[in-house]
Amino acid sequence: MAIGRTIRDEFDWPLFIAVSTIALFGVLNLYSATDGGTTSDAYIQQLYWLVLGFGVAALTAAIDYRHFERYGWLIYGACVLALILVFVLGKSVRGSTRWIALGGFSLQPSELMKIGLIIALGKYLHHDTKTGGRTLVDLIIPGLICALPMALVLLQPDLGTAMILAFIFGSVMMLTQLKLRSMVTLLATFVVAAPVTWFYLLKDYQKERITAFWGRLGGTQTDLLDSGWHTHQSLVAIGSGGLTGKGFTQGTQTRFRFLPDQHTDFPFPVWAEEHGFIGALLLISLYLFLVLWSLRVASQAKDRFGAVVAVGVGAMLFWQTVVNLGMVSGLLPVVGMTLPLFSYGGSSLLSTMLGLGLLMNVSMRRFSH
Amino acid sequence: MITLSQRREVGEFRKRYRWMALFVALVFGGIIVRVAQVQLFQRDRWSGIAQQNITKTLELPATRGVIRDVEGRVVASNRPSYDVYATPRLLESEDLDRIASLMGLTEEESSALEARIEGLPPERRTHQIQLYRDIDRDQLAALETHLAELPGLDIVTVPLRDYPYATLGAHLIGYLNEVNEDDLQAVGDLRAYRSGDRIGRNGLEKRYEALLKGSRGFRRMVVDARGRALEGARPDSLDVQMLKKPVPGHDIQLTLDMRLMEAFDRAFRPHPSGAAVVVDIHTGAIRALYSKPVYDPNEMSSGLSTRRYAELTGDPFRPLIDKTIYETYFPGSTFKVFTALAALEDAVVDPAQRVECTGFLKIGRQKFRCNKRHEWVDLYDAVVQSCNVYFWVLAEEVGIERINRFAEAFGFAERTGIGVNSEAKGFLATREWYEEHYGAFRIGYTLNTAIGQGNTRVTVLQLAMAYAAIANGGVLYVPQVVQNVRAPDGSLSETFEPRVKHDIGISAQHLDLIRRSLVDVVQDEDGTAYRARNKDGLPVAGKTGTAQVVSRKGRSEESSSAWYLDRSHGWFAGFAPADDPQVAFAVLVEHGGSGGASAAPIAMSVMQQYFGTQEEAE
C-alpha cells in the first residue's frame, strides 16, 4: 500500500508522457516508412518491443536505484563480458560483428554497454567525492572505465556507439570540477594532436571524406556519391516537406525508396517530409524537453549516483539525437546512429528504455531520505 | 536487509546544470534553425529535386516541317532514326558492358563509353544524356529486345532530315547541323534547344528555322529510386505536367521547280562549273536557282573534318560558293541592252542611225578591237550581232553616268532582297571611283562599261531579274523563293504575294525594240546565238555574253587546269517563250568561252524541256 501511494504521488508524468508520445510517433512513422515494402509488418514488431521496453522500464524504475549502485561493478562487468562474447558468438552483418543470438532474439551488447558505463561512472563518482577540484590524474580511473568498453566496441567496429560512450563519459565528467590548469593541458594536447592525426594517422581517403563533407556543408562542393548521396536525398526529403508536409504516408522520397535506411538511421527525414516543419519542430521539442527534464531530475537527485545516472541518461539521449539529426540534416557526416525511441530496432529501444527507467527511478526517489 | 550505500554530497555538481541546460538548448536551437532553413527557405529547391527524383522525362522530338517545290515534290523531309539515351545514375557497370556487347562496340568504343559516363559531374548523373545517334537496324533490334532489363537506357525515335534531291539546290535549301553555343546566344531562348539538337545552318533551313522547327514535347513517368516505371502511382504532391505533345513544324512550299533544276543539272553535264537562274517575269517567283558544283548537305550536316573542309575550300570550282547570288561576274555583252536602253530613253541616239564597224575603234592612241568587222550597223543590228564598235561610239555619247543610272534602275549594284543566304551587291564603277583608284578618268572606262567589262560586276540573279524587267514591260520584282507556309494542320499560315521593287518607267516602244532584237539574236542568221536555236522548237530570246576572267594572281601556273581557268565565262540571258514571255533567265558557264557556244545551248535546251513538257501536261 505504501508503495502504491508512492507511485501515484511521485510518478513522473511529464517524463512518461514525453517518452510515450515520441514512441507513438515512432511507430506511426515506421508504419509509413515501410508501408508497401517488404518489411511492412515492422511496426507490429516495434509495438512488441515497445511493450517489452515499457515493462523493462517499469521494472527498472520500481527497484530503488541504490541497488544498481550496489551492484554497479557487477553490471559493468557483465556488459563488458557480453561485449567480449560478441567476438566469440557474434554474427556478422554488413562487415561488422555487433550481434549475439539470444534464443529467438538478436541482442546488441554495445547498446547495453551505454547503461553499464553510466552505472559504473555513477558508482565511481559516488564514492570519489572531491570538492577542491580535480586534476588530470583524477581522470585516469574513470577514463579507463570508459576506454575498455570503447576499445571493444571499436573493434567490432562500431564507430557510432564508441563515440556515444565517449560523449557520455565527457558529459558526466563535466559535472565534476576540473581544475583550470588541467583544462588548459587537455586543450593543448588536443591542439597538438589534431594536426599530428591529420598528417600522420589519417589515410588519404579518410581525409578526402572529411574535406568533401566540409566542402558540401560550405556549399562549395556537391558530392552526390556514396554518403553524400544519402545526405542529399535526406535533405530532399526534409526540404520538400515544407511547412506542413506532404501528409501521412504521402512522402515521395520515402515511398519511392530514395531514402537510405529509412526506418533505422533516417526516420527523421520521413517524418519531416510527411509532417513538415510543424511536425519536425514538435518532435525536436519533445527531445529537447526530455534532455532538459533529465537535467532537472539530476539537479533534484538526493545523491551523487542518482545525479550522475540522470545526467548520463540525458547525455545518451542528447548526443544520439543530436548526431542523428545533424547527420540527416547535412550538418554532420553520415555515421550509423539511430534516433532514440523513434528508430526501428529492439536493442536500441531496450537500452533506451532501461535508461529512461533509471531516470524515472531517480526522479521518483527525489523525496526519499 | 540489503545495505545501501550512504547518500553522498551533491554540491560539487550543483553549479553545472545551468551551463549544461544552456548548451543543450543552444545545440537544439541550432538544429531547429537548420531544419527551418531547409524546410522553409530552401523548400522550392528541394521540392523540385524531389519531383525530379520520381519522374523520368522522355523527350518527344518535334517533326521538322517539310519543304516542297512548286509542284509539291518533296525537297526536304524526315526519316525516322533511333537515338540511344541513358540516365547515368541508373546504370551499373555491368550494364555498360551489356550495352557494348548488344551494340557490337569495339574495345575502343566501349572504353570511350565508360570514360564518358564516369567523367560526368555528379549533378548531371540524374539527367538523360545522349549516347548514340542514328543506330542501325541490327543495333536497334538487339537493344530493344533487352530494354526491359536496362532501366537506365532509352531509345528515342528522332526524325532525321532527308534530302531526296541530294545535292540539287543544296545552297538554297541548306542543311542542319548540331546546335552550338553561339546559336543559343543568338536564339536568346535557352530552352528552345538542347545540346545535340540540330539547327538550320544555311539556306532556307536557316532562314525559316523558327517556322520549320516546331516545338518539342515530353512524356513524364513516375519512377522509383531504381528507375522502374510505376504505373498509376502518382503522388498528390506531384504537380507537374505529365504529357506535352510535340508540335510539328510548318511546311514550306517553294516557288522552285525541281524538274527545271534537274533539267539544268543534265544540261550542265559537259561543264564543271556554272550557274543559272530562272524567274517568273510576272511575279518575281524564282523557278530555278542552280549553282554547280555543290557540296553534299548530308556530308555537311555530319560535321566536316578539317581535311575535308580544306579540300572543299581549295577546290578551284568552289563548291561552297553559291554562284547565283554570292559570286559576282562581269556581265559582258549581256549588259549592252542596258547601255542601249539608257541611250534610247534619254534620246541620245536615233536607233536607225548606222555606225560603221571596221573591226576596231581608235581613240587617241588606243585601239579597241571588235569581235569581227560588222560593216554598217544600227542599234538593232548591234544587239543582234553584239557589235562592240557600235556600243563604243554610243558610249561616248551616253556617258558613264547615264549607263550607271539605268543599270541601277534595273537593280544592279544593289541586293535583290531574295532574303536567303548572303547576297552580293555587285558593283558599278563611277567616274569618282575611277578618279580615286586609277588617278584620272579616261574615256576608255566608259567604253568598257558600255560592253559589260571594266569594273561592272553583277550576280547571275541580278541579271535574270533585270531581263525579267525587260520582258515584262519594265517592272523590277523582288525575287521570291517561298510561295507559302502551311501550319501543321494544313492551313495556310502565310502566302507570299509578288513584291514589286519598283517600276522602272521605261517606254514600251524602246523595250519592244530591245525585245525584238533579243529575239533575233537567236532567230537571225547573223545572231550570236543563232547556232544554238531550237530548230522547229520553242523560240527563245536572249543576249549572249563573254566575260573576261580577272587574271588569277597567286595561283600556280603549272597547274594542269591553269589554261582552263583562264578561259572567259560564257553568258546567255533572256526570256522565253520569245513570242509570249513567261520566264526570264540568266545562264553562266564558268570558263565556257563564248556565251553563244556554251551558255545559249543550255538555256535553249532547258527552256525547250520546261515549256515542251508543260504543254504536253496541259
Can you offer a commentary on this structure?
In chain A, strand 2 and strand 3 form a beta hairpin. Chain A is built from 15 helices and three strands. Chain A has 369 residues and is mainly α. The longest helix of chain A is centred in the last third of the chain and has 34 residues, at 267-300. A three-stranded antiparallel sheet of chain A has the order 1-2-3, covered by helices on one side. The radius of gyration of chain A is 21 Å and the shape is globular. Chain B has a domain at 80-161: Alpha-Beta Complex (Penicillin-binding protein 2a (Domain 2)), CATH 3.90.1310. In chain B, the strands form seven sheets. In chain B, strands 2, 3, 4, 5, 10, 18 and 19 form a seven-stranded mixed sheet that branches. In chain B, strands 12-11-23-22-21 form a five-stranded antiparallel sheet, with helices on both faces. In chain B, a hairpin with a 5-residue loop joins strand 18 (482-486) and strand 19 (492-495). The chains are: A mainly alpha (369), B alpha+beta (618). At the A-B interface, helix 4, helix 11, helix 12, helix 13 and helix 14 of A face helix 1, helix 2 and helix 3 of B.
Overview features:
heterodimer; A: 369 residues; mainly alpha; three-stranded antiparallel beta sheet; 3 strands; 70% helix; 4% strand; B: 618 residues; alpha+beta; Penicillin-binding protein 2a (Domain 2); seven-stranded mixed beta sheet; five-stranded antiparallel beta sheet; 23 strands; elongated
Helix/strand/pairing category of chain B:
alpha+beta
Series of secondary-structure elements of chain A, N-terminal to C-terminal: HHHHHEEEHHHHHHHHHH
Strand order of the largest sheet of chain A: 1-2-3
Mean pLDDT over the full residue set of chain B: 86
For the termini of chain B, the CA-CA separation is 129 Å
Which shape of chain A, going by the Cα principal axes? globular
Sum up the overall morphology of chain B in one term. elongated
The CATH topology of the domain at 80-161 in chain B is Penicillin-binding protein 2a (Domain 2)
Number of strands of chain A: 3
- Helix share of residues of chain B? 25-40%
Low-confidence stretches of chain B: none
Question: Major beta sheet of chain A, specifics?
Answer: 3 strands, antiparallel
Average pLDDT rating of chain A: 85
Can you say what the CATH homologous superfamily of the domain at 80-161 in chain B is?
Answer: Penicillin-binding protein 2a (Domain 2)
